[in-house]
Amino acid sequence: MDGKQLRGTTPTGRRQASVQLVSVWAVEQRLCLTQVPVAEKRSEAVAMPQVLELVDVVGNVVSLDALGTQPALAARLLEREANYVLVLKQNQRELFAQVQARFAPLLVQAPAQEHREKGHGRGEQRRLWLSRYFPLVDAAGAWPGLRTLVCVQTTRWQQGRATCASRYYLSSLGQASASELAGYVRGHWGIENHQHWQPDVTWYEDGCRRDHAPRNLSTLRKLALTLLQCDDTVTSLRRKRKKVARDDNFLR
After folding, report:
1. Using the 8-state DSSP alphabet, how is residue 42 labeled?
2. Which of 88-92, 213-217, 224-228 has the highest mean pLDDT?
3. Consecutive H or E run containing 93
4. Where does the Transposase IS4-like domain lie (predicted)?
5. Is 252 in a helix, a strand, or coil?
């Protein structure tokens, strides 16, 4: 679950777009299940509980970015018989500091899972550590069902330069393996790469600015995106879109 601002609707002189949408993305199916607009002058965190009630999450794992990392939302997911993987950032200041301190001595040990890949002119190494024993993380007591802390350290090489970043996660999954947790963490970025990014580059979504059009057309773009991604033709989405416009048989 994640939010997106339609940047083309940002009023002159302001930083926040007037149209913001929170949507739920099914990672394996590459399908947008639902979306809800964020009320004016409110944050994505307010809309997330509303979106959650529209989706059957029983037996699933729900991942949320830092704005959705709230004890109340974690509790609601457990009530709905779902598990969670939540991004932990410094907006949860005390918990973040304690989790960071918990992993400090673990990072000199071998990771529980490691993955390397190359492509698009860059190389990337991802290493994952997890902890299911954290008695000194006092702030964890406020989090319903918290069973596992996760640290993912990413090193990226591009154009002869290396950058390194560490990210932390909270999870209610007590039995999941390191590779499964790595998959959930990696899968969360599917909503960025396959849903948020594609309308921008394939349909120039940020060029849509006025009245109700941005929100309405965002819904139509997601429907079209789902259909194009279901087709197994080996070509870019932009080429598929053009072929649909020119070839009625391909359209059908």
Report:
1. -
2. 88-92
3. helix 93-103
4. 7-199
5. coil
d(Cα 184, Cα 186) in Å, to the nearest integer? 5
Place 106 in a pLDDT band, splitting at 50, 70 and 90. very high
CA nearest to 66, candidates 35, 41, 88: 88
pLDDT 10s digits, 160-169:
889 999 999 9
Cα maximum dimension of the chain: 63
Give me the residues paired with residue 85 across strands.
Answer: 63, 171
Residue 134: per-residue pLDDT? 94
- Rounded to an integer, what distance in angstroms lies between the CA atom of residue 206 and that of residue 188? 23
pLDDT digits (tens, 9 = 90+) for 196-218: 777 777 777 777 777 678 878 88
The amino acid present at 48, given as its one-letter code, is M
188 secondary structure, DSSP code: H
User: In whole angstroms, what separates CA 204 from the centre of its chain?
Assistant: 21
Where in the chain are the domains? 1-55+188-252, 58-176
Q: Where are the beta strands (DSSP E) in 65-208?
A: 83-88, 113-119, 122-131, 148-158, 161-171
Is the pLDDT assigned to residue 39 strictly greater than 90?
A: no
Q: Could you give the residue ranges of the DSSP H alpha helices within 53-92?
A: 71-79
- 80, with CB counted inside 10 A (0-12, 13-18, 19+), is middle
